[in-house]
Design goal:
Oligomer: single chain
Largest sheet: 7 strands, mixed
Helix content: under 10%
């Protein structure tokens, strides 16, 4: 069983920054892939950014150049640094982890609101 605890969401003005954190715990030695997704009401959940355990990353097109994902393997924590935030970034952000041969897990979500 894996537990994910997210933090760092909140309200910010356009152009501002936020940093999300997601700490993973459980009897898992390593997490193969860690990512952030986001969802707004009435739309599908979309990938924001992901990072594998070799530190390779992938980003959604709308956040490239503004968001940066990183991970601390010693702490089993993934971070999302969000800069130059726009109102269209407003969403619930979910942490996601994949452990090969075990399963995938979602966090409870954290609200990010960007005011214009």
């Amino acid at each position: 069983q894996v537990q994910l605890v997210e933090s760092g969401g909140g309200l910010v003005q356009t152009g501002g920054s936020l940093r999300l954190s997601c700490a993973a715990s459980g009897r898992i030695s390593s997490f193969n892939y860690m990512a952030w997704y986001r969802q707004v009401p009435g739309k599908q959940r979309e990938l924001v950014a992901g990072i594998a355990n070799d530190d390779s990353t992938n980003y959604g097109d709308s956040v490239k150049g503004r968001f940066t994902i990183s991970r601390d393997n010693a702490k089993n924590t993934v971070y999302l640094q969000m800069n130059s935030l726009k109102p269209e970034d407003t969403a619930v952000y979910y942490c996601y982890v994949l452990v090969i041969s075990v399963g995938n897990y979602w966090g409870q979500g954290t609200q990010v609101t960007v005011s214009s």
